[in-house]
Amino acid sequence: MSGFILGHLSLFELVLVSGVLAYSQYIVLRAGVFSMATAGFAALGAYAAALLAVRLEFPVWAGLFAAALLGAAAGLVLAWPLARLRGVFQAIATLAFVQIVMSIGLYWESLTGGALGLNGIPKLVHLGHLLVVLAIVLYVLRAVSRTGIGRAFDTIRQDETVAVSLGISVVGYQRLAFVLSGALGGLGGGLIAYRNYSLVPEDFGFPLLIAALSFVVLGGRNAVLGPLVGALILTLLPEVARPLADYRLAVNGVLMVLAIIYWPSGVVDSVILHWRQRKAAHPPIEVAP
Q1: I need a surface site. Which of 28, 176, 181, 282 has the fewest CB within 10 A?
Q2: How is 186-202 classified by DSSP, letter by letter?
């Protein structure tokens, strides 16, 4: 068993990093925000953490905290104009934000290394660090879900008109969702930097953006464990389907189409819904004393 874990250690680490990025996308979708900014937040956090480690020799936790803080600040700035947009307009605006961040990474060569990338980053995170970070993220998100914030997010996502009639500040809560998404995205970017040894702007392009969205769509947008399960499935799939490596993108696409058709709520949410329906259809029989 230990030999299996050591042989697939890098893959397990990738699943955990992907899970953190998935939660950055999850929190905005749960609040009814069609944001695609996770890749941009991750890029900011990754370069910030890497530069602090390489040039200032910051310890790992300080670098990750700085990455999350920068991501949250970027989310706050981005939320100010974009929380009033809706639907496809939010998506286009956040895509523009990702493109701006990638352009900065590409053309600010003195800081980021440009197209050649930022190299020589020490590997500061290992499986134990990733497990701790993911446990903290899960705890925070579960706590948020059980408070009025989580209920407000769900109400806004389901019907903004009802949310307004209940006195919920739609713009205020969506700005909060942007900030939380930015913090998680920046944290995920910091983990990428401290795991990959080098960074190039292409690491945070369209594939990462689609991957983060796919994790949530496949896993589920309601249950807190949904994005992690989606990240687990889509990260392990290329390893399981190695004979189809040349057709990996096509296989992922087919899987997403099947998930949307047969599990429109996501794998985890669909399983929970099925379990609740089955429990309601077969209530426990009370035995008379």
Answers
A1: 282
A2: HHHHHHHHHHHS-B-GG
Helix axes 206-219, 226-240, angle to 10 degrees: 120
- Region of 35 please: left (phi>0), alpha (psi -120 to 50) or beta: beta
Contact 181, 37 (CB under 8 A): yes
What pTM does this model have? 0.90
Q: Please tell me the distance from the alpha carbon of residue 47 to that of residue 43, in angstroms, as a whole number.
A: 6
According to DSSP, the residues that pair with 199 across neighbouring strands are: 118
End-to-end CA distance of the chain: 50
Alpha helices in 115-241 (DSSP H): 127-145, 148-158, 160-165, 170-196, 206-219, 226-240
d(CA 237, CA 84): 38
CA dist., res. 42 & res. 71, Å (int): 7
DSSP 118: B
What per-residue string of b and e applies to 228-239 under the rule 16 or more CB within 10 Å gives b? bbbbbbbbeeee
* Residues 36 and 256: beta-carbon distance below 8 Å: no
